[in-house]
Write a structure and sequence with these properties.
The structure is a homodimer of 313-residue chains. With 313 residues, the first copy, chain A, is α/β, with parallel strands linked by helices. Chain A has 9 helices and 13 strands. The first copy, chain A, has a 5-stranded mixed beta sheet, with helices on both faces. The interface between A and B is large, with 52 and 52 residues.
Chain lengths: 313, 313
């Protein structure tokens, strides 16, 4: 009998999230381990192995009964050869053949996918985008990533770096982004830029607590700089939604990642900004919604992608 | 023996362009007729019929020997049902079942495609994008349209209005576009906006000659307002190329339409603007080129699309 288990591993700069799921994407077992990037690639790969084996243990499943393993990792990466070429979030990783390494140690087949694409694929497979063949997702985290499903397929583009939605230019000659461009969405709507801007404008009462929730609390208490920063974030996301509407014409745009944990506090002003910025010429209006799978989206999507590549999902 | 002839008709606001092509997209006969939109849909459909029959006559081919007819028309349109829903360029056209009308009068099968998508498909089929499976095209004409080929397929999106690339927002709170949005690419890079801006800034010596070539001549003679307008146009196109790079990750971006007739005068500054605005993080740099099929692109692409839909191209 065909096994019904597949493992998803989401390799983040801080944590590894491992999820054992069934063929319907339901989580059967989960474990998180620290990535400990500072100890280098060999150590991180050993952590990935431990996370995989721990999760099987929690689920009471033998590794040999797992169909395979999907890995989500920060890019740029070479999906075809399963290699992480280089990553801002994984310092010292240059051309690491991650798929080969994990296939050797886990003795299971492994696939590799960009983490934001994986989150989008997870939402498309079993989350807020289930059944929607044209959707885009923003992952508003430390940075801003994205994923696109177009005509039912993940969009990668010629170079495989498609859906880097954080680097849509929303403000001409705007704020400098970590990527070197000016006016990127990421320079307004990422956790790191929101926090940096909050520090620049003296929003945070306690120096040690410069978080997005702290900024939102300050905005709620009437801090005008905090309100301006949040409005700039939501306006930037709304403008990027307009641009995606006209380029991709999706039915659905999802907001995920840490910033989207603010729920209605981010969703409503983004919808308002979008509605005020977009045309009224055609009824091609995407729905804007929050993502549903939380921080399991990447691991679930990686598992789903493994099944998709094997022709099972 | 299977016929080797297919007709492409490009229904523009001013002219109808008809091209008889072979299965390789080579033009065998051509004719242009005035659209005469002011006489209403029935007259225009009769002009389309005349253009089709004239072109067959020029090519010495009987209409019954033509496999079928592809029509390119301004949107929004309903491709599936072959209906033009409404168009800025075709006043008075509301829900006209163009495909049915032409199939009845020409007694050939007919397909319908958005005109900018048709131009992009034509370039992909036999023009500057031949063999390129991930490309985007800007049609810089009276308005700015666009087309996208992603993974070898035209991108339509959920509502069928995809690749409206003229309405990518390039300037926050920028110039008002005819569509009601602010800061659209079209508000900087369309012929109508370039001319309007030129008139506003007093660029044109002769009131009757407010054309793009006249503005370029003024810029060349040292007119600073004319130079600023042109720079704003090319910078806007360059910024839109950056955004498309990160969303679609194409190998190639083509510039077509009347503004692109300026050749190197538009291509070089767009390339320079793109290079100065984009990131240097990854080597996912699209080539920016001029389109190759000139004002036959839409008709050729419509013919190619007919063959594609019939599984022949």
């Amino acid at each position: 009998m065909q096994s019904e288990y597949v493992l998803g591993l989401d390799l983040g700069g801080t944590n590894i999230k491992a999820r054992l799921v069934d063929l319907h994407g339901t989580i059967l077992a989960a474990s998180d381990l620290p990535t400990q990037v500072e100890h280098g690639p060999d150590h991180v790969i050993s952590q990935l192995n431990s996370a995989a084996r721990d999760t099987c243990g929690v689920g009471g499943v033998l590794m040999e009964d797992v169909i395979g393993v999907g890995v989500a990792a920060p890019g740029p990466l070479d999906m075809t050869h399963g290699v992480i070429e280089k990553s801002v979030n994984l310092p010292g990783w240059i051309d690491i053949p991650l798929v080969e390494r994990l296939e050797t140690s886990l003795e299971r087949p492994v696939t590799l996918l960009n983490d934001a694409n994986a989150a989008c694929y997870g939402e498309h497979w079993v989350g807020a985008g289930k059944g929607v063949d044209d959707l885009a997702m923003f992952t508003l985290g430390t940075g801003v990533g994205g994923g696109i499903v177009s005509g039912g397929r993940l969009l990668f583009g010629h170079f495989g770096q498609g859906a880097e939605l954080g680097h849509i230019i929303v403000v001409q000659d705007g704020r400098l982004c970590g990527c070197g461009q000016r006016g990127c969405l990421e320079a307004y709507a990422s956790e790191s830029h929101i926090k940096q801007r909050g520090r620049e404008l003296g929003v945070f009462a306690e120096a040690g607590n410069s978080s997005v929730p702290a900024l939102l609390a300050a905005a709620k208490s009437g801090s005008e700089p905090a309100q301006r920063i949040w409005e700039a974030c939501c306006t930037a996301v709304g403008a990027a939604c307009v641009t995606l509407q006209h380029v991709l014409n999706p039915r659905l745009i999802l907001l995920g990642g840490g910033v989207a944990a603010a729920g209605a506090t981010v969703l409503e002003p983004v919808r308002t900004a979008y509605a005020s910025l977009t045309w009224k010429m055609a009824r091609d209006v995407p729905t804007i919604e929050l993502a549903a799978l939380g921080n399991s989206a990447g691991a679930i999507g990686a598992a789903g992608w493994f099944l998709h590549q094997r022709g099972t999902a």
